[in-house]
Each structure stands twice: as structure tokens, then as C-alpha cells.
Design goal:
Elements: H1 2-26, H2 28-43, E1 45-55, E2 60-71, E3 81-90, E4 100-102, E5 104-108, E6 111-114, H3 119-124, E7 137-151, E8 161-173, E9 179-187, E10 191-200, E11 212-223, E12 230-231, E13 233-243, E14 246-260, E15 267-277, E16 284-293, E17 296-306, E18 313-325, H4 326-333, E19 341-353, H5 360-363, E20 365-377, H6 380-394, E21 407-416, E22 419-429, E23 432-441, E24 446-455, H7 459-462, H8 466-472, H9 476-479, E25 487-495, E26 500-503, H10 505-508
Length: 510
């Protein structure tokens, strides 16, 4: 009797299971239509689905092919979401609930194309930004492999930004909730691998770019050489929050071998930054960047953004150094075995770097002012020339000991077309002040300056006294101005390591 009851129970269970399976299979067209209606309602999108099948043994599996979703009213040709194939699995009874629940969804060929925000979207404001209502579907786990995220710029002549997402995991997936996620992807420029995790959602209809997201990231081995003009391997850690079109990012970067394309020496660069990124167009607005180039602290703020009718990003920054080392700045920009100059530097400058294929020195535009304290040149030839000028300025003999020549320097400068131009550039040595105007070529490494050499001593004393001084004494008034010592028009020209100092005699007799 017990055996009969077991048999009846098992047989009845099988009949019930078969009934449910047959009911589900027979309702496959209904489920397909329900899927389309749900996606339409929750995403405010037009849905296209080419293939749809339902299997019930050994567990419920729903397969779909070539699913395409287009946002209503979108103008771009590419669908908002494309899925080459999807598979949904779960218990049969998950379909019988009011809120249908599935355990697992696997996506192949996922392609998400975020359209630019239109003026109509902006005017719609809060109405367009409203999140979806309570969703009818809940998925425990969604996995996508080798997906793509594509950001379409507003300018139709600009190339879209493409992120290759190698692995994407979503938990507790529903349209009406914040969904935990983990993802690994390749950043296109600078090229490198990003591992990120956080939450995404609830979904915002009609404006997916305003869907909330937050989390943290690890950007590893970013190759700065993929950005024309700079080099190095960067690592960045940070956290983010906001929405896709306005991501607030705070983090740090470490680049042990940062370099720029002017022939200088790679140096370690570390930064701590706060930025806002528009994920729909790639523009980055740097609220504050505090960095350290070797031992020199640097702060900056500005924007890296696209400009109408121009391909690429335009960098516009305000840069400030309050107490740095001039050797760090020069080592980055000047090709030399040892630093050209040692000393302390303070600097303020406006930096602009337009996009282009020409080398960075030919595109870089700097306009600023600087102050150097206790600076001295490391090249013996330059030190000898300055020592000679200092002796003459003090009326000393060529053999008098004078020690190391330190200078205080100040001036305004511009860097354009691969050359630094000073207007003017002043520096002091013991007994004299030099004021120059001129340029230094970053690539040619040629110096071309002209200006005045103002000495404490008269021209006769600068000659060292003796017979030369006696014969030059009548010329002292010719070189004297405002009752001071001699003022001599000079030139400094030639290669950086061995410049030649000369007198512009033509200006003496004017």
C-alpha cells in the first residue's frame, strides 16, 4: 500500500511537471510578447527580437537571438542595445510569481551604444530623468563576456569612444534598483586595463546617461605612449559616483617614468586629483590636481575637452609651482646627462595643448611668470663666464677668488612653436644685474639673448685697473647711466653648454 502511494505521488508529480512544462512551452509566443512589452515599458524602447525558444528539461531555459533595442525617438542608426544571443535559466516556479524571477542570464555579443543627450532631453528635465516603476522581472545574476560600451559624441564628425568590456557581472538585476556589478575593461586612450566594481541603477528611462552609478576602480598599466607627445606607464586607484554623463572621480596616479616628447629624462610623477568626467562625450574637468614631479610639488586645474570642428581633445590648465626644484623641471624638458641648473623655483602659467599629429613641443603653448632663488648653472663653462662677469662687475682682478656663482632670476615667458621666449628675463650675480630678452630652442638647444649688463663698477674698474683702466677712464661717462656703474649692452648666443657672451658695441655709441 505504501509502495502504491509512493507510485501515485511520483506519477502525479510527473504529471504536474509535464503539465507545467507543456503550459510554458505552449506559452512561448506569449512569453516572447511579454518580454518585448516589458523591455518597451521599462526602457522606453522599440524592441526587435528574431529568435525565441523555451526549454523545460532538465531546467527552464529561454534562448533568444539578435535582440535589438532602439530608444524611442533616437536618431542614430545603431541600436541602443544589441545582444547577439542570450540565455535565461531558472526554476519553473519563477515564472508563476507576479514578479518573475530567474537565477541566471548569460549574454553573448552585448553592445551598448549611448547616444548624445539632445536639447529635447535637457528641456524635459526631471520628467525625463524619472526612474522606472517597480519592475516585473528580477534576475539573480547576469554575466556578459566580450561586450562593448560605445559613447557617441554630439559632433557627427568625431569618432565614438569604444570600451571593450572583457567581463561584466551584475547581481540582483532589476530595472527599479541599484545593481551591484564587477567589470574588467580596456580603456582606449591611454590604453590600459581597468578593474571596477560598484552599483548601477535604478534605470532612468529616455535618458540612460543619467542613470546613477558609484564604485571604485583600479586602472593598471595605462600606456601613456598612446597619447601623442607623452610617455610612461601609469597606475591609478580611485572611486567614483554620479551618473554616466557626470561622473565625480577622486583618485591617485603613479607614473614612475613620466616623460614628454622634447628629449628630456623620464621622472617619477605622482598625483592626487578630483575631476568630473562626462561619460557621454569624454570631456574631463579637473577640479584640483596636486602632483609631485620627482621632488617638485605641482598643482593644476582646468579641462580636457573637445572643441567644435576639431578632432581630439584640447588641454587647458592653470599650473602652479610654489616651492619646487628647477632641476626637476629642466630634466623633464632638456636632454642632458646632468641637470642644467640647480635652485628653487616658483611658477604660475597657463598651459594649452591643442590636439594634433605634430610633436608636443610644436603644439604646446605656455604663458606665465617665474622666480628662481639661489640658482646656479652646472656647466663649468657657464660658471666661468658668470664668474668673469661678476669679477668685472665688482672691479676685481681676473685672478681674485670668487667662489660659486648663485643667481636670483625672474621673468615672464612664453613657450610656442618649440621655443621658450623671455620678455624680459632678469638675473642677479654678485655686483651686477642682467636683463635679457630672447629665446631658447627646445630642439636646437640654441641660446639667443640680448640685453643689458649693469655693473656696480665703472667700465675702467671693470677692466681691472692698470693701463687698461687708465685708458678706459675717459669712457666711464659713456657707459654710466643714472649715476650708477657701467651699463653694457650684451648678447648671449650659441649652444646651451657653451654660450658666447659679447658686447653690442653699436648700442654703446647711440
Amino acid at each position: 500500500m505504501k509502495l502504491v502511494r509512493w507510485f501515485i505521488g511520483i506519477f502525479g508529480g510527473v504529471l504536474v511537471g509535464l503539465w507545467i512544462a507543456l503550459a510554458i512551452v505552449s506559452r512561448a509566443p506569449v512569453l516572447q510578447q511579454k518580454l518585448i512589452q516589458t523591455l518597451d515599458a521599462q526602457l522606453d524602447a522599440e524592441v526587435e527580437l528574431q529568435g525565441f525558444t523555451v526549454d523545460t528539461f532538465p531546467m527552464l531555459r529561454i534562448h533568444g537571438d539578435n535582440l535589438k533595442l532602439r530608444l524611442k525617438g533616437q536618431q542614430q542608426a545603431a541600436p541602443f542595445i544589441e545582444i547577439r544571443h542570450f540565455e535565461v535559466s531558472g526554476g519553473v516556479f519563477g515564472l508563476l510569481r507576479k514578479q518573475r524571477r530567474f537565477s541566471h542570464v548569460h549574454l553573448d555579443g552585448l553592445r551598448i551604444t549611448i547616444p548624445p543627450r539632445t536639447q529635447d532631453d535637457k528641456e524635459a528635465g526631471g520628467k525625463a530623468a524619472a526612474a522606472v516603476d517597480e519592475g516585473p522581472v528580477l534576475i539573480d545574476h547576469v554575466v556578459a563576456r566580450d561586450a562593448q560600451l560605445i559613447i557617441v559624441p554630439k559632433n557627427p564628425f568625431k569618432e565614438p569612444k569604444i570600451w571593450d568590456i572583457h567581463h561584466l557581472d551584475l547581481e540582483s538585476v532589476g530595472f527599479n534598483r541599484a545593481m551591484p556589478f564587477k567589470a574588467t575593461l580596456t580603456n582606449p586612450i591611454p590604453k590600459g586595463e581597468i578593474a571596477t566594481e560598484g552599483t548601477f541603477g535604478p534605470w532612468v528611462k529616455r535618458e540612460p546617461g543619467r542613470t546613477p552609478l558609484s564604485g571604485k576602480y583600479n586602472f593598471d598599466r595605462a600606456d601613456l605612449n598612446t597619447i601623442r607627445g607623452i610617455g610612461g606607464i601609469l597606475k591609478s586607484l580611485g572611486e567614483f559616483s554620479g551618473s554616466l554623463e557626470e561622473i565625480d572621480v577622486k583618485g591617485t596616479t603613479t607614473t614612475p617614468d613620466f616623460s614628454i616628447d622634447v628629449g628630456g629624462t623620464p621622472l617619477p610623477l605622482e598625483t592626487r586629483f578630483h575631476a568630473v568626467v562626462d561619460g557621454t562625450n569624454g570631456n574631463t574637468y579637473l577640479k584640483q590636481v596636486d602632483g609631485k614631479l620627482d621632488e617638485t610639488p605641482i598643482s593644476a586645474a582646468g579641462a580636457i575637452e573637445s572643441r567644435p570642428g576639431v578632432k581630439g581633445r584640447h588641454i587647458d590648465l592653470d599650473v602652479k609651482i610654489t616651492d619646487g626644484r628647477i632641476q626637476d623641471v629642466l630634466r623633464l624638458a632638456v636632454k642632458a646627462k646632468k641637470p642644467v641648473m640647480l635652485g628653487r623655483i616658483a611658477l604660475q602659467a597657463k598651459l594649452q595643448l591643442p590636439p594634433g599629429k605634430t610633436p608636443v613641443p610644436d603644439r604646446l603653448d605656455l604663458d606665465g611668470r617665474f622666480v628662481l632663488e639661489n640658482a646656479h648653472f652646472t656647466a663649468p663653462e657657464v660658471q666661468q663666464q658668470l664668474a668673469m662677469l661678476s669679477r668685472r662687475a665688482q672691479g676685481k682682478k681676473p685672478t681674485d677668488p670668487i667662489g660659486r656663482i648663485d643667481s636670483d632670476m625672474r621673468g615672464r615667458f612664453t613657450l610656442r612653436d618649440g621655443a621658450i621666449r623671455f620678455r624680459p628675463f632678469a638675473f642677479d650675480v654678485t655686483g651686477a644685474e642682467v636683463v635679457l630678452n630672447g629665446a631658447y630652442g627646445l630642439r636646437s638647444e640654441q641660446v639667443d639673448f640680448a640685453g643689458t649688463f649693469m655693473m656696480d663698477a665703472s667700465i675702467s674698474k671693470a677692466a681691472g685697473g692698470g693701463i687698461k683702466g687708465f685708458f678706459l677712464k675717459p669712457f666711464d661717462p659713456l657707459f654710466r647711466k643714472n649715476g650708477k656703474g657701467a651699463v653694457i649692452p650684451i648678447t648671449i648666443k650659441g649652444p646651451r653648454e657653451k654660450p658666447k657672451f659679447g658686447v653690442e658695441w653699436g648700442k654703446v655709441f647711440k
